[in-house]
Write a structure and sequence with these properties.
Layout (H helix, E strand, L loop, with lengths): L1 H34 L15 E6 L7 H10 L7 E6 L7 H6 L5 E3 L7 H9 L6 E6 L3 E2 L3 H8 L5 E11 L6 H23 L9 E5 L13 H11 L3 E13 L4 H21 L6 H4 L1 H35 L7 H24 L8 H21 L15
Parallel strand pairs: 1-2, 1-4, 2-3, 6-8
Antiparallel strand pairs: 4-7, 5-8, 6-7
Helix pairs in contact: 1-6, 1-10, 6-8, 6-12, 8-10, 8-12, 10-11, 10-12, 11-12
Length: 396
């Protein structure tokens, strides 16, 4: 009986985290639309506040040309854009290249102290009321600035999250296929979060905040985008989601490179939970607490261990009942888990031999990101996660 209770608790955590929350969210948004239809955004070309396009870069020499050309091609008055780059710690000559491009403002110091320190330092040079953060290796959609600015017409919006899109190719490896599928689903959930109340966090590839709301963040912060955006949400402002403001980048070169990213993100997730404990107070934050707990806390802290414990408990139940040959629910569930892990193992085997079997990509990627989450938790608890990004190689 005790084992059965644990089994259903772990199964519920996993189902709710990866599918149930999305279904509940879809239902609530549908009900909300019945009583309060969403108003279509009316474009107002007269609303063109000054903005700062802020890029932090560490040894990104290979991406400078495409990023600068992309920034200059965006559909927004050039005289209203402050182009600001911070290249702290770079030693590949990228800062010299950037300083030769007008009208870029480039700020550099030789010491590398992490992205968050560079962002805090760079904010003192921002002159515009809206600052748009973007990574140096991403390409922004032509209308991204206008889409972001349009959201700020609402005075309750303090942050705008853009959409991250993965550039995929037919011959994509498991990392690319899995990452692309993950971000499509994540973008859908983020859109529903916003339609109901507020998006839950932003991605560093593209997000914007009202400059006046930015507060210096601890320099050892691992997930700057989440901490900055969610602290603004804690103050009562909404995080809008602008799917037509998007940043494109190629997928990780392979699963090994994607694993590096996911481990760091998992470590950062635990750090974020500890630093945003106040966001778990529903009496202060209302529905945002439920969204944050369901969308992020469960995924970062509860689901990965639950995946392991579900298998162990399921195995104990079948072994205790000696029901290996039965067709009962617990036995079927155990075999389904074994099939999933076996498919992931085959996916790993064939991926390392450059054999692309797309049917194995999803179980392989799913197991990999949960494995990365466990590693990230352990790394954060042991204090072994560096604040400096170890860049993952991207596909060409």
């Amino acid at each position: 009986m005790i084992l059965s209770v644990f089994f259903w608790v772990f199964l519920f955590i996993l189902f709710y985290t990866y599918l149930g929350y999305a279904l509940v969210l879809w239902f609530f948004v549908g009900v909300k639309k019945l009583f309060k239809p969403l108003k279509a955004s009316t474009e107002n070309r007269d609303f063109e506040p000054e903005v700062c396009l802020f890029v932090t870069a560490y040894n990104e020499k290979d991406y400078i040309e495409q990023k600068v050309n992309n920034a200059f091609s965006l559909d927004y008055p050039k005289e209203k854009i402050q182009y600001l780059w911070v290249t702290d710690g770079s030693n590949d000559g990228s800062q010299e290249i950037l300083k030769g491009i007008d009208p870029l403002e480039v700020y550099h110091q030789s010491e590398r102290r992490g992205k968050m320190h560079a962002m805090n330092r760079g904010m003192s040079y921002v002159k515009a009321p809206i600052v748009i953060f973007s990574d140096s290796n991403t390409i922004l959609g032509k209308n991204s600035i206008r889409e972001i600015v349009d959201c700020f017409k609402d005075p309750t919006v303090g942050c705008v999250a853009g959409e991250k899109r993965i550039i995929q190719h037919d011959e994509e490896a498991a990392a690319g296929a899995g990452e692309g599928l993950y971000w499509k689903f994540e973008s859908w959930v983020k859109r529903k979060d916003w339609e109901l109340n507020s998006a839950v966090g932003a991605v560093g590839e593209l997000f914007a905040v009202r400059t006046e709301l930015f507060e210096d963040v601890e320099t050892d912060t691992l997930l700057d985008d989440f901490i900055i955006s969610l602290r603004i949400a804690q103050r009562g402002y909404k995080i809008a989601y602008a799917p037509n403001a998007y940043a494109e980048e190629t997928a990780s070169l392979n699963v090994k490179e994607e694993l590096k990213r996911k481990v760091r993100i998992a470590a950062g997730g635990i750090q974020t939970i500890l630093r945003l404990k106040g966001l778990l107070n529903p009496f202060k934050n209302g529905i945002l607490t439920w969204q944050y707990f369901s969308h992020k806390v469960l995924r970062w802290a509860f689901a990965p261990p639950a995946l392991i414990f579900l298998f162990i408990v399921n195995l104990l139940i079948v072994q205790t009942n000696n029901s290996w040959g039965d067709t009962g629910f617990y036995t079927i569930m155990l075999y389904l888990q074994l099939i999933c892990y076996l498919a992931a193992a085959f996916g790993w085997y064939f991926e390392n031999r450059k054999v692309r079997l797309k049917v194995l990509f999803v179980p392989y990627y799913f197991v990999m990101i949960n494995y990365a989450s466990i590693l990230g938790m352990v790394r954060y608890v042991k204090g072994r996660q560096s604040v400096n990004w170890e860049k993952s190689k991207r596909a060409g």
